[in-house]
Structure formats: structure tokens, C-alpha cells
Amino acid sequence: MIADFHAVRRRLSEDEVLEFACSDVGIGACHGAAPEQLLEIARLELAGHLLGSEVQEARIALVAKAAGSSRPRPYDHAALAALQIDDDQLISLRQLEVRQSGIWKDGWEFHLLPALPETNSSWWIQRMLMHLASDFDVRVRLDPFIVQPRTGHRAPEYRMWAYGKPLDYERVADLTSDDHGRAYPEGVRPPGVAFTDFVWSPRGSERHLVLEEVPLPEGVPNRPGRYFHGILEPGRGFSHVDGAIRIYDTESIEQRMHTHVRYAGKAGVRRKLFRVEGRIPPVAFSALGSSFFVWNTDVMNYFAGKRTFPEPPEELAEADD
Q1: Is 41's pLDDT higher than 90?
Q2: Which segments of the chain does DSSP mark as H helices, in order?
Q3: What distance in Å separates the CA atoms of residue 319 and residue 265, rounded to the nearest whole number?
Q4: pLDDT band at residue 189, thresholds of 50, 70 and 90?
Q5: Parallel, antiparallel, or unpaired for β 108-112 and 142-149?
Q6: Is 0.85 surpassed by the pTM of this model?
Q7: 10 Å Cβ neighbour count for 281?
Q8: Whole-angstrom distance, CA of residue 105 vs CA of residue 95
Q9: Is the peptide bond before 190 cis (omega within 30 degrees of 0)?
Q10: If we measure between CA atoms, which residue out of 103, 173, 182, 107 comes closest to residue 138?
Q11: How far is CA 81 from each of CA 75, 98, 112, 260, 283, rounded to the nearest angstrom?
Q12: DSSP reduced 3-state for 306
């Protein structure tokens, strides 16, 4: 049973609140607040952080076990019970009411399952997917917990641009062997990323991109890794894009830390969050990638064409021989 926010807030000691206030840069940014206001802000923030961690633990547990259920939450909700879900437990946005402010059905609002513990991490990619839903077959996994009556609800707005410009797709189209790399984070927000791998693989006339952000071992299982896959048909655009999370345990993350995504196979438990089918132009593909990997500056810069990933470490390069 998930605790009540106010109950969590009341049981926090002053020492806990003070320690959190000193460690959180966001609290220090409230320059105009009086000391007693700063403590109350810190108390609210810490209560939200603790409750959010509890919610995330329950969310990840549900998602990891969802394969054994024909209609896991929230698809058992009365507003969704008659709608079809596929084998990946994704639902087509064409079955739902997609508006600028959210995803609705019969007076209820639903949200895309967030890839990270921060619930707003799904905001940018959800807006991209909603934008593409009129032209492409877009399927998404809905959050099991965020279900609310539409009446009286006001959707949040976050002030940040998710961007994407074509990278060098002509070079990718000419590949005859794998093109791969790895980036180690510098100031990535949110924290908890060990590294990010990518590989472009030529498969017949297609070029497949697999890109994965690998979490630090101490963050699992509540901190999943974001996983992105696309199929490029040179000269015609992308025929398929999907985004997923990989949920690791102690053993699987230890194995993953010692290999590249090219050799990771089905490491961890992979759960798809969305899938887009159609003739997707590279600019839309890049925008999807940078929106999905919000706060990972290495990936966002890569999709924006600002730079490429660094050369792979020697041990990974040697693995090709």
C-alpha cells in the first residue's frame, strides 16, 4: 500500500529536512524565501521525493510482472476495458481521444508510462507521439497509476524544448559494417547513468539503430535503462521506431556493465513504451529520439547532429576482431 503524502510529510524529522535542504540545489535556488519558508519547501520536496520513490518501486514491480497478465493496469479500467492491446501490451492512440493537453477516453485522462523515476520525463516524448498519431500508427504503454477524471484537471506545461535534426543519414545508408560508439555522461540530469551505447547495423537493404542508456548498478531496479530502436530504409525514411525500458537486477546489470549493446542480447527485462509504424521521415525520427532521451545531453546532441559519439574504448574495438 502506497503511503499518503501528508502522512509522509508529517513524519519527517527536522534533521532529515535540513540535510535534504543542504544537499538539493533546487532548494538553494529559492533566494527570496525566508528561512522558515525554505524549510517548509524542503519538507514538501523531500516528502514528494520519498513518496515518488515508493510509487516508482511499485510501478516497476507491476511493469516487470505485466507479461503474465492479459490486461494489466490500467487496461482493466472501465474506460479502456473494451479496447484492444497488442502482445507488447501497447494500445493504439487511434483508439483514444488525443488532444493537445493529453490522452483521454470516456472522460478519463491517461499518460504514457515514464521511462525514468521522474514522472515528467515522459512529457516531451508523449507530446511528440501525440503529434505523430494523425499520420502514423502510434502505440503506447500507459502508466498503471496516473488515471484521473478529465473534469477539473489542468495539464502541466514544462518550459524546455525537445529538439531533433537529421544526423548524417547519407553516411549511415552507405554502411557495410557496424558503426558503434559509447558515451560517458558529463553532468547528465537526472543522475544515475553509467554510459550510453549505440550501434547502426546494416541488415540487407535496412539499417537498424539500437541505442541504450545503461543505469548505474546502485540504481537498479527502480532506475531502468532507456532503449531505442529504429529501422531505416535508405531513401525512404524509417519504417519502424520503438522505445522501451530495460529493468535490471543485481546480476544482469553486472553482466551488462562489461559488454556493449551489440552483444547484450535480451539482458534484463525489456518492456516497450511506444511503437510507431509508417513512412517516418528522418527529422521526425531524430525528434523522437531526442525527446525520449530528455536530459541525456550526449544522445540529444547526437540526434541534433551537433557531434558524434566518441570512438569506442579499445577493449570494445578489439571485440570486433
Answers
A1: no
A2: 5-10, 14-23, 25-28, 35-65, 123-132, 169-173, 250-256, 282-292, 297-303, 314-318
A3: 15
A4: low
A5: antiparallel
A6: no
A7: 13
A8: 9
A9: yes
A10: 103
A11: 6, 18, 17, 40, 35
A12: coil
